[in-house]
C-alpha cells in the first residue's frame, strides 16, 4: 500500500513538473508548483531560488536537499520579416534532435504559443549539406504567422521570450517507463518535493533545507547563491542523470541503467564527491536494501560543482535517476529508480546527525 501511494504521488508530481515551462531564468511555473505542494513557510532569494526549511529533533546539522528547477531551452533572439523566429540556446543542445519538433514559446503576458522548428527543406540541400549536422543558426520556429508584425502584435512574442519543448508526460506500454521532456531535472525536483512532504511525518536529527535552484543549465548560477544563503553542513544534490544502457556502450561501461536503482555519483569533471559521504550513502542503501548504482563520469556536471566549494567546503553527494535522451524533447526514466532514490533520501535524512556529518570532514589520517 505504501509503495503504491508513493508511486501515485510521484506520477502526479512528475507529470505536473515535467510539463511545466521552466527555461533558465524563467523558472516561475516550477516555483509555483514548489509552493503549492509544500505548504507552510517557503521563501525565495534574490536569484530566484526557492527554499523550505524544516527543523527536526536537532537544529544542526543543516542538510541541503537540492535540485535545479530549470530545463534546457531557448530564448527568442530575433524575428524575420517573414515571421519566422530565430533562437539562441539556453543550455546544451545537439541540433540533430531539433528539426520538425514542436516547441512552446512563453510570452511576457504569460501566454504559451505553439510552434515547430523548421529549416531549409532537404529537397533544396546539396548532398554535402545533408550529411552535416545543421546549425541552430540555420533553424527557426514557425508559429503560423504572416509576418513580423503578426508575430509581435497578434501573438505577443518578443525578443527574450523563452522556448521549451512541447512534450506531454506519457507512461509507456510498460507503465514503469515514463516519457516526457525535462526529466533533467524535474525528476530531481519531484524527489525534493516528495521527500519534504514525507519528512513531515518522520523524525530526523537535523534541519532539512529543500532548495530549488535556478539556471543550472547555463552555468550552475543559482546554486552558488543558494548555498551561500542556506550555509549547509552537508548537501544532497538530486538529478536526472544521463543513462548509458544503450547500443554503443559495453556492459562494463554501463553505470546508469534504467531499472537498476538510484545512481550514486562518485565524481565527474566538476566535483569529486566527499568519499566518506559516498561510502555512508552506500552503507545506508545496503542496510535498507535500496538498489543502487555507482558512477564515475568522464563528462558533465551538476550543482555540486559550486555547492561543495561553499564557504570552507561542504561534503556533497549526487543521487541520480538515470534518464535516457536528456536534453531532447523526449527523455525516459524508470519508476523503480525514482522510488529507490526517494527511499535513500529518506533514510539519509533520518541518519545524518551531527556526529556523522562531522566525521565526513575529520581528516585525521
UniProtKB/TrEMBL annotation:
Zn(2+) 2 binds at residues 184, 217, 327. The active site is at residue 216. GO terms for biological process: proteolysis. Its cofactor is a divalent metal cation. Binds 2 divalent metal cations per subunit. Pfam families: Peptidase_M42 (PF05343). Zn(2+) 1 binds at residues 68, 184, 239. GO terms for molecular function: aminopeptidase activity; metal ion binding. Keywords: Aminopeptidase, Hydrolase, Metal-binding, Protease. PANTHER family: AMINOPEPTIDASE, AMINOPEPTIDASE YPDE-RELATED. Belongs to the peptidase M42 family. This is Peptidase M28. It comes from Desulforhabdus amnigena.
Amino acid at each position: 500500500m505504501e509503495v503504491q501511494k508513493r508511486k501515485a504521488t510521484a506520477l502526479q508530481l512528475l507529470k505536473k513538473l515535467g510539463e511545466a515551462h521552466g527555461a533558465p531564468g524563467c523558472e516561475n511555473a516550477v516555483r509555483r508548483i514548489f509552493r503549492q505542494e509544500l505548504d507552510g513557510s517557503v521563501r525565495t532569494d534574490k536569484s530566484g531560488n526557492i527554499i523550505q526549511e524544516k527543523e527536526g529533533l536537532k537544529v544542526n546539522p543543516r542538510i541541503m536537499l537540492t535540485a535545479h528547477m530549470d530545463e534546457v531551452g531557448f530564448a527568442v533572439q530575433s524575428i524575420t520579416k517573414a515571421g519566422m523566429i530565430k533562437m539562441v540556446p539556453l543550455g546544451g543542445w545537439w541540433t540533430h534532435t531539433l528539426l520538425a519538433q514542436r516547441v512552446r514559446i512563453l510570452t511576457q503576458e504569460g501566454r504559451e504559443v505553439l510552434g515547430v522548428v523548421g529549416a531549409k527543406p532537404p529537397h533544396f540541400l546539396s548532398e554535402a549539406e545533408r550529411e552535416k549536422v545543421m546549425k541552430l543558426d540555420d533553424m527557426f520556429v514557425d508559429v503560423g504567422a504572416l509576418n513580423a508584425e503578426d508575430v509581435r502584435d497578434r501573438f505577443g512574442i518578443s525578443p527574450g521570450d523563452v522556448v521549451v519543448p512541447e512534450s506531454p508526460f506519457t507512461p509507456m506500454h510498460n507503465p514503469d517507463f515514463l516519457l516526457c521532456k525535462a526529466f533533467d531535472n524535474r525528476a530531481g525536483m519531484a524527489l525534493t518535493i516528495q521527500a519534504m512532504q514525507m519528512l513531515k511525518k518522520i523524525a530526523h536529527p537535523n534541519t532539512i533545507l529543500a532548495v530549488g535552484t535556478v539556471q543550472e543549465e547555463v552555468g550552475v548560477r543559482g546554486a552558488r547563491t543558494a548555498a551561500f544563503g542556506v550555509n549547509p553542513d552537508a548537501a544532497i544534490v538530486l538529478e536526472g542523470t544521463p543513462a548509458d544502457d544503450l547500443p554503443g556502450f559495453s556492459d562494463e561501461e554501463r553505470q546508469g541503467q534504467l531499472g537498476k536503482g538510484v545512481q550514486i555519483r562518485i565524481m565527474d569533471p566538476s566535483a569529486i564527491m566527499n568519499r566518506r559521504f559516498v561510502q555512508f550513502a552506500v552503507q545506508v542503501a545496503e542496510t535498507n536494501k535500496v538498489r543502487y548504482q555507482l558512477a564515475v563520469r568522464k563528462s558533465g556536471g551538476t550543482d555540486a560543482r559550486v555547492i561543495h566549494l561553499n564557504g570552507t567546503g561542504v561534503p556533497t553527494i549526487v543521487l541520480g535517476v538515470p534518464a535516457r535522451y536528456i536534453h531532447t524533447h523526449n527523455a525516459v526514466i524508470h519508476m523503480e529508480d525514482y522510488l529507490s532514490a526517494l527511499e535513500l533520501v529518506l533514510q539519509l535524512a533520518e541518519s545524518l546527525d551531527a556526529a556523522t556529518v562531522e566525521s565526513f570532514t575529520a581528516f585525521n589520517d
